[in-house]
Structures are given as C-alpha cells and as structure tokens.
Amino acid sequence: MGTGDADDRTVTLRRLPAAWTDESVLHALPAKIKEVMEEYGELDGPPVVSTTLHSGTSATVRFKDQKCANAAVESLHGRDNRLLPRGAKWSLDYRPPNENERFWVQFASSPAVAITAPVQAAPVSVTEPAADCTICLSALPPDWGLRDVKELCAQYNIWRHHRSQFRKVSRTLC
Fold first, then answer.
1. 126 occurs within a structural domain
2. Is the domain of 125 the same as that of 99?
3. Cα-flanking dihedrals φ and ψ of residue 107, to 5°?
4. Residue 126 sits in which domain range?
C-alpha cells in the first residue's frame, strides 16, 4: 500500500505527444507512459489509457508515494511534448510550443480548470558580469548538460571557460 491518499497519488496526463498516440503505435502507449512516469517513482499498478471525443487520449497513473506524484506533476505539466531532438531549441526555425504541444499533467482529484501555459521568465540582459559573480540557473530540463548550459549562457556573454564551474544538482524525487 502506498503513502498518502489514493487521490493524492493519482495523476492524469493529457496532450500527449502525437508520436505516442498515432493509431499505428497506440498499443505501445501504456508501456511508454509507464516508462516515463517510473522516472519519478514506483507505480501502484499499470497506467490506464482512455480516449474520449472531449479530451482525446489521456492516461491515469497511481504512484505508490505522494512525493513521486508531486514530482511528476511539477516536472511534466506545461513541458514541451513535441519530442524535439537535442539542441533543436537553438535552431533558427525554432518556435515555442503552443498550448496543445505542452503536457497537461494534474492530480486526478483536481477540478478541471482552464489550461494555460506556464509563465516564462523574461530574458535578462547582461553585458559583463563581475569577475567573481555566481549565477544560479534553476528549472532547467533534467536532460541538460554542460553543453546546453554553455549555449544558454553564451547568449548573454556570461560564460568564461577558465573561471566557470558547472555543477549539476540532481534532485531525489522520492
């Protein structure tokens, strides 16, 4: 038995990637959902996939631990679901995802509300940082590494190879 009320451990996913819901691969969707959600913690049974005219294809999963469900909702809700190749966000023809190209992930017990994209911080204009300044970047995608951080910082002229340090802080989700 899991920790927390079942409603607090049950998560619904909508606006899944088109590549996952194509009719030719729909049979593999439960396994794909399970694979993605188990990155956040152990599930309390297999995902339940359903399709309706109103909400399209959706999946419901129940975690064994409420902390894991919280981590999944916080990490996935509003994230780009287009499965772009690594580095695509830096190409000239990149465009931000529209609302239907973002995961919708909420607790199953949450009332249905209007879905909006998460608020994104405005870019900060930096000309030259002080020699001993420290810049903390948070809420970066979990798959980002040193190269991605360098590319981001290069846009603002804040990366110095000889003085910069990169520490990836990993969160223990549960």
1. yes
2. no
3. -70, 140
4. 121-165
Give the pLDDT confidence score for residue 120 in this predicted structure.
45
- Please check whether residues 55 and 19 belong to one and the same domain: yes
User: 10-14 and 56-62: which strand pairing?
Assistant: antiparallel
Report the 10 Å Cβ neighbour count for 66.
20
CA distance 5 to 65: 9
CA dihedral of 82, 84, 89, 94, whole degrees rounded to 10: -70
CA–CA dist 46, 32 (Å, integer): 11
Q: Pick from 69-73, 81-85, 112-116 the range whose average pLDDT is largest.
A: 69-73
- pLDDT tens string 93-102: 788 888 888 9
pLDDT at res. 163: 42
Round to whole Å and give the CA distance between 42 and 34. 9
